[in-house]
Amino acid sequence: MSAIELRGLTKVYPGGVKALDSLDLAIPDGEFFALLGPSGCGKTTLLRTIAGLETATGGAVVIGDRDVTGLQPGARDIAMVFQDYALFPHMNVTDNIAYPLRIKKVGRAARQQKAAEVGARLGLEQLMDRRPGQLSGGQQQRVALARVMATQAQAFLFDEPLSNLDARLRLEARTFLKKLQHELGVTTVFVTHDQAEALAMADRMAVMESGHIRQIGTPAEVFQRPANTFVAGFIGSTPMNLLDGVVRADTLEVTGCKLAVPQSAEGLLHDGEKIVYGVRPEYNVYSAEPVDGSLGGNVSIVENLGASYLVTLDVNGVLVQAVVPEGHEPAIGDEGYALPRRDRALIYRDGELVSA
Amino acid sequence: MTRFVLHRIGFYVLIAVLLAFFTVPLLWLASAPFTSDPTYKVRLPDFTSENFRAILDNPYALGSLWNSVLLAAGTAVLVVVFAALAAYALSRVHLPGRDALLYTLLLLSSIITGTAAMVPLFQLAVELHLIDSQLGLILIMTGGLLPAAIFMMKDFMDSTPKSYEESARVFGASPLQIVRHVVVPLVRPGLATIAVWAVANVWGNFLMPYLLLSDVDKQPAAVIMYTLYTEGGQANIKLLATFGLLYSVPVVLMYLFVSKKYGFRFHGGIKR
Amino acid sequence: MAQATLPPEVLDDAKARRYSADAAGLGRLRAGAFVAPALALISLFLVFPALWVLYLGLSNYRLTGAAAAAPRLVGFDNFVKALTDPEFWNSTWLTFEFVLGSAVIGQVVLGFLLAWIMRDRTGPLKRIVEGLVILAWILPSAVVSFLWVALLDRDDGTLNTLLHSQDFAPLLDHPMLSIIIFNIWRGAAFSMMLYGAALGNVPPSHLESARLAGASGWQQLRDVVFPHIRGHVLTNLLLISLWTFNDFTPFLLTAGGPDGKTEVLAVHVYQVALQGGELGYGAAVSTVILLINLVVAVFYLRLLRSKK
Description:
Chain B: Belongs to the binding-protein-dependent transport system permease family. Chain B: This is Sugar ABC transporter permease. Chain B: Keywords: Cell membrane, Membrane, Transmembrane, Transmembrane helix, Transport. Chain B: Pfam families: BPD_transp_1. Chain B: One of its GO terms (cellular component) is plasma membrane. The structure holds three protein chains of three kinds. By secondary structure, chain A is α+β, with helices and mostly antiparallel strands. Chain A has two domains: 4-234, Rossmann fold (3-Layer(aba) Sandwich), CATH 3.40.50.300; 241-353, CATH 2.40.50.140. Chain A is 24% helix and 35% strand. Chain A has helices spanning 43-51, 93-103, 108-121, 137-151, 167-184, 195-201, 219-224, 229-234; strands at 4-12, 18-27, 32-36, 58-63, 66-67, 78-81, 155-159, 187-192, 204-209, 212-217, 241-248, 251-254, 257-260, 274-279, 284-287, 295-304, 308-315, 318-325, 335-340, 346-349, 352-353. In chain A, a hairpin with a 2-residue loop joins strand 4 (58-63) and strand 5. Chain A is elongated and about 75 Å long. By secondary structure, chain B is mostly helical. Chain B is globular, with a radius of gyration of 23 Å. Chain C is mainly alpha-helical. Chain C is built from 14 helices and no strands. Chain C is globular. Chain C has one domain (80-307): MetI-like (MetI-like fold, Orthogonal Bundle). Chains B and C meet through helix 1, helix 3, helix 4, helix 5 and helix 6 of B and helix 1, helix 4, helix 5, helix 6 and helix 7 of C.
C-alpha cells in the first residue's frame, strides 16, 4: 500500500509566514496526482514537506500505513526528481542510476545490472557511459526518472518535471510520463504551475493558493465545475468569462443583458443578490444573429487558435469571449451574440460556486 | 568599417601595452640566471651554468627548497581540509552568530600577519615547545590562513545548488555519505583554488619561519633568499637571480598543474 | 466539490521529531564537529596571540632594557602616544594612499579591464595574458620585489633602458607611485579572476537589449554589468583592501624610505617594534590598525547590506 495522506499539515516559517495552512489530502495508491498553483502558493513547499526536506510545524504525513512525519527523508521510502534533475556531474549515467542502490548497500555487479535494465527500459542503452553534461535535456530527464525507478520506492515526487524542457519536447514528455506512470502503477505526486500540463497528465489534482487547497478533483471536475472564482480563473487555456451580475426574479441581469439561470444554480438564488456569472469561451455558442438570453455586442478582437477562433465581444464595455469553429469567424466590428450553454454555465456567490 | 578597424587596432594596442606591463619585469628573471656575471641589466644570456653550480655549492640552498615544499604542502593540506569542513557546515547549517564570527576572525587574521604579533607568537611557541619545529610552524601558519580560506570557501559553497545534496538525502544517504559522494566532488575546483592560494602564501612567507625556526637546515627558501640578500651587506646578484629562479619554479609548476586539472577560479562557485 | 476531510478525532498535532532541515541533514551537532578543528587551531594560534597583542598594547614592554624584564601596564599611554605622533599619522595617510591607489582603484580597474577585454575570448591569447598576470601574483614576494628593484635601477634597470633615460630612479624620486604600481602589478590577478567569473554571469540578453536601445559601451557597463556584479565585487573589495592595508611587501622594495616616504603602517610597526624595540608601543599601533580595519570592514558590510 502506498497511498499518501496529509492530515492538518501546517508549515509556518520563523517570522510568521504560513506556507501551508492545515492541509488535508488523501491520494490513493497508484494515482498520478498534481499540485497546481501560481508561484508562491506553497505547492513546492508541500512537496518538500512530504519528502521530508522541510519539517512540518503541525499535522501529519502518512505514506502507506506509516506516519512518516518525524522521519528523515531517507527513511520515508520515497524518491524525488528535482526540477534541475540533480544528476551528479562527476558520475556517469550508470553510476547515477545505481546511486540509490549503492546507498542501500547493493553489491556493485547487482546494482550495475539493475541500472542497465532500468536504463534500457527508458531507451538509454547507448548513453550509459556518458556524463550528465554530455546529455540533452530530454536525456537527462530520463536518467533522473531511471534513477527513481531503480529505487523501487513506494511513492514518487516530481518537482516541475517538465519545465526544464523546451516546448516541443515538453509535449512529448507529457505523454511519455503519463504512460510510464500508468505502467509502473506507483503513487506519484508532481508539482506544476502549468494548468494545461496538470489537466493532461493528472488523474486528480489539487489547486492551491497561498498555502490553501482551493479545490481537489479530477481534471474534468476542475475544468467544468471550478469550486471558486480563483480556480475558475486559473484553469483553462482560455480564461473563463467571469461577469458581474444581479439576480432579477427568475432571470439574471449580466452586463446589461438578460440571461437564463444556469441548470446548476436553479432554485438556489435570491432575488436582488449580486453574483458572478461564469462561462468558458468554449461553452458560449456564437451567433451573428440576435438570440434571446445571450450577450450581445461588437467584435473587437479575433484570435486564431488553430482549428477555432477566440472572439472577443465588447458587451456594454465589458469584454466577453467565445470560441468559434473555423469557417464561422466574424470580422472586427461585426455584431455578435454569445449564448452560454445552460448546462455548463456557473454562478458564484462571494467567490464560491453555487450548487446543490 | 573604419570604426571596426580602429576598434581592432585599439584592442591590440591595449593588449600589447598590458602584455608589456606584465612581461617586462619578468625578463630579468629569465635572463640573469643564465648570464655569467649578471647585473641588473637585461641582456641576452650566454647560457652559462656556473651560476647554478654556485647555488649547489651553497650548503643550504637546495635543502631549503625541500623545506619550503614540506611547509607549503603540510599547511595546504590542513588548510584545505579544515576550511572545507568548516565552510560546508557554516554554509548549510545556521549556526548562531556565524557571520559576526567570520568577519571577526578575518579581521583578527590581519593582526596576526603583522609584525607586532611576532613576539606573542614567539612566546606562545616557546610555551608549547613548538620552537624550531616544522610541525609547529605548519600549525601556526594554518591558523593564520584559515579565516580567509573559510571565507572564500563558504562563498563558493553558498553558490553551489543544494539540490544535489537533497537528492542524495532523499535516496537515503547519511550526511557523511553525502559529503563524501556528492559535496567533495562538486567543490573540487574550489578546494584546488584554496590549496594553490595557501601554497603561494606559505611559499613566500619569510617572517614566521625566520622567527620560529632556529636550525638553518630547517629554514625554507624564503629565508635563504633573504640571507642571500643581506649577506655581506651587498646584494649578491648572481646568487639572488639564480636562486630566485629556482625558488619560483615549483610554485609556477604547481599552478600550471592545478589549473590544467581543475581550472583556477577563485569564484568558480558563481553560477553560470 | 468539497475537500477531502477526515473525522476530527483522527487529526492530531504531529509531535514531529526535530530533525535538521539543512540540505544534507547535518544538524547542529555534526556541523559543530565540522567547524571544531578549524576553530581549535584558530583559537590557539590566532585569537589567543591576537588578544595577547591587544593586551601588550596596554603595556610598556620592550625588547631590551628594564622594561623587557619587568613590563608595566601603562593603560592607554601608548595609544595616546600613537595618536599624537606625527610619524604615525604620516604612516596612516600613506597607507590609505596605498590602499586607495593600488587596491581600490588600481587592481580593481586593471583587473576589470583585463576581464572585460578578454571576456568572450578563448584560445592562446587569453591563456598567455592570464598566465602572465597570474605569474605576477604567484611568484614569491622576495623574488618579485627584487625583480622590481632591478627594473627600476638607476644605472642598469630595464625601465631606464626602455625610456632611454639616464639616472631616473623612480624608487627614490617617486617612491609611493613606485610601490603603488608595483602592488597593482602584483595583485591584479585576483581581481581579474573575480571579474572574469562575475562577467560570465551577466545574461547576454541584458547586454543586447541595452545595445539595441542605443547604449554605448560605457552605458552598458554602467547600467547592465555593474548592477549584476555588485555583491561579489564588494565582498572582494573588502578582502583586497584588508590585505593591502596590512601588506608588508613595500618594505622589500623601499624599506620604508627614502626618509619614511613609503613607511606604510605595516612597515611602521616593524620599525617601531623590531628595529626600535618598543614592543608595547608597536602592539598598540597594531591595535589601532585593527580598529581602522574594523571601520573599513563595517563600511563595506553596510554597503553590501544596502544592496540586498
